[in-house]
Amino acid sequence: MKLLVTGGAGYIGSHVVRIAEASGAEVTVVDDLSTGIVNRVSCPLEEIQLANDGAVSQLTQLMTETKFDAVIHLAAKKQVGESVEQPESYYKDNIGGLANLLTAMRATNTLKLVFSSSAATYGMPDVEAVNEDYPPNPINPYGQTKLVGEWLVKAAGVWGLRGVNLRYFNVAGTGHPGLGDTAALNLIPIAIGQVKSGKSPIVFGNDYPTPDGSCIRDYVHVQDLAAAHLRAVEYLDQPKRSFDTFNVGTGVGASVIEVLDELKKASGVDFEIEIGDRRPGDPPRLVADVSRIKNELGFECEKNLGEIVQSAWDAS
Ligand code: WQD
Asked: Residue 51's pLDDT is what?
């Protein structure tokens, strides 16, 4: 099987590439190396900025030279705060990039796509576990671009595209040495950085309506998430499947304080925890209902929170 992975030099993308190669796929990566790291990939890499004017012809040439069985599209900007400050650049890169990719896929009759979407499409759902039919209501431009991206993937069914949107929950951990999340933008890498520099991790609010007062999320090991992409490609191999959306989570919630307790175990450091103010826009609870992906793709995460935190610590 020949696979094109955009964003394959990124933290998540490089795990997808590894697992695809391990399954025998021949992988080509497209990445603009803006946040991707070239050393993460050993397969052929084309440096293309997907949202640029020239991207359609570059991609069309690439997809003409190699007939890909499917495309896994992860290349995108993903910082919520930055998206609030720079909405135009998020729409340009995330939607413009996808539109260019689809234009080239249409021109070359490349008909299967797995799209990297996000639980950010849900906004602030007021349920124990959110399923894919819950009305999406993203509360920042990042989440909006992911939702519009999903719509675009669906709309492209008009020319025969078969697409799967994977809504990632909180991705963390490391599957291979050297592929760790170096960006330190999310709880686990931020807290690891603080512990390593002798500081106290900060809990953003402990007065939420949750058992210990801190926010609850669904943490997914990046290796499990990567495996879900391959399942999605297999799912699209069956001719009836034209479009679907799946949560990728464990279905199990963990609070910020529980994550930090796991980090104490993983690191062996009995650090202090600081309680800070709430961070604006944080839902108290965001946990995936994973019945659909389990029933339709036969997919379940295998790794628990302890393994996620331990792998992140070991790779740091
Ligand atoms: C997790 C929890 C924080 C740092 C974001 C995006 C989402 C998706 C995943 C891409 C929250 C708390 C954090 C800290 C803390 N991204 N926290 N102290 O916000 O759930 O999701 O990443 O698709 O779209 O919004 O992840 O890791 O920032 O926070 O207490 O120093 O940890 O308040 O409750 P979040 P996060």
From this structure: 98
In the chain, what percentage of residues exceed pLDDT 90?
95
Residue 206 sits in the same domain as residue 285: yes
Span from the CA of 271 to the centroid of ligand 1 (angstroms): 20
- Evaluated on CA atoms 49, 37, 152, 144, the torsion sign reads negative
Q: Do both 33 and 77 map to the same domain?
A: yes
Q: How far, in Å, from the CA of 171 to the mean position of ligand 1?
A: 10
Name the closest-CA residue to atom 29, ligand 1.
187
The domain that holds 104 is classified in CATH as 3.40.50.720
Beta bridge partners of 288: 130
- If asked whether residues 158 and 303 sit together in one domain, one would say no
Same domain flag for 311 and 226: no
Give the residue whose CA is nearest to atom 33 of ligand 1. 204
Same domain, 228 and 181: no
In angstroms, rounded to a whole number, what is the distance separating the alpha carbons of residues 126 and 124? Answer: 6
CA of 186 to the centre of ligand 1 (A): 5
Q: What is the span of the domain harbouring residue 14?
A: 2-171+219-248
User: 272-300 pLDDT, tens per residue?
Assistant: 999 999 998 899 999 999 999 999 999 99
The structure tokens listed for 274 are 């600081």
Which helix or strand (DSSP H or E) is residue 90 part of?
helix 87-90
Amino acid occupying residue 233: V
Mutational test site, ligand 1, from 82, 140, 186, 203, max ligand atoms within 8 Å of CB? 186
What total number of domains does the chain contain? 2
User: Which residue, 142, 84, 65, 75, is CA-closest to 113?
Assistant: 75
